[in-house]
Design a protein that fits this description.
Layout lengths: L8 E6 L9 H12 L4 E8 L4 E3 L2 E4 L3 H15 L3 E4 L4 H13 L3 E4 L11 H9 L5 E4 L2 H9 L7 E3 L16 H7 L7 E5 L11 H10 L5 E5 L5 H7 L4 E4 L6 H7 L2 E4 L8 H8 L4 E4 L14 E4 L4 H12 L2 H16 L3 H4 L1 H11 L24
Parallel strand pairs: 1-2, 1-5, 2-4, 5-6, 6-7, 7-8, 9-10, 9-12, 10-11, 12-13, 13-14
Antiparallel strand pairs: 3-4
Length: 383
Amino acid sequence: MPFDRAQGVRVAVFTDANLDSTSGVTTTLNALVTHAPRELQPRIYTFSDLEVDAPHHRAMRGSLVNRYRKTRAELLRDGVDAVHMTTPGPSGLLARHLAGELGLPLVGSLHERVGTSRTSLRSQFLRWIYGRCRQMLLPSEDLARRLTACAWFPRPAAVWPRGVDVRTFSPAHRSDHMRDEWHVSHRRPAILVAGRVSAEKGLGVLEPISSLLHRQRIAHRLIVMGSGPMLATLHERCPDALFTGQLAASEVPLVMASADVLLYPSEGSSGCSVLLEGQASGLPVVVANVGSARESMLPGRSGFVCRAGDVEDFAVRLGLLLVDRERRRVMGEAARTYASARSWERSLATVCAAYREARNTTPQQDRAAPLTTFPQQRSAGQQ
């Protein structure tokens, strides 16, 4: 039996993310089961083509009806105290339905930046699926402010900031051999871009930034770590860049520590796990002033904040770091110190408090609604 009945709060955590992949969601959920205090027992539930029945992870295969029946039976068998919905896909629908049917308190969390429109179909759907949650957890103050301002969620939301493991991500992993393979050095520093390679990450500025730096005769090389729909376009636009593709989780800390600067131009950032990982690896960071990236660094100390989409501003700030090795060192040390204070144990305080509160709540009105009753039209004052 995965849960110890003699120990604390048992929580079924539902996600559509593939735990074998590397992303901000999977990093956060793996940290949740690894670093949660002993009196809390989260178990991750996912859908998969392969069955997994491990102490902290349950993956089920088969039809939605089959998964529903098996999950329902296991939640009843294990005496689960609360349900946590982390993504609004099929697993989120199942989490919402089971919590209502079994009379279990439902905790919700978002791991992405969302729009504030009341009229878009996606916004209506998100407001509906998360509307039953007793507690709502958001990855940044920026997102919490925006959703509160438009009354996106009926109850106060709490911020669940991201953390980082400074033993996994550390300057100690820096590899001279890897840097030689990259053809970079202190005189030709490596600018790392990490994460999903897609337009919404602001990567359209990479080629013009690099071109401007070259025109100013500032030596550098772009290292693009990750994969995504924009990969082919960047290959064409940035022929001098090195593309690592999607890496195994064990390889990421080595690449992080072997770079010199982390560039993060995304304007739609939410949790910003990659920023914390880069700073823990001793990298100064350069970020956009739109989104929540500023919440995950120390402006002017562990890196620079630039005007979103402003190629010249990004190039100037990067240039200051690329031409001055001592500045990189000082800011890199400040970045490492900052990241060391962002432990996962500290990060999990908010979600752990939500679990304890949920267990002490009796959701009297939370009965299951049919999965097909998503309301297409709602007035501004409704959920």
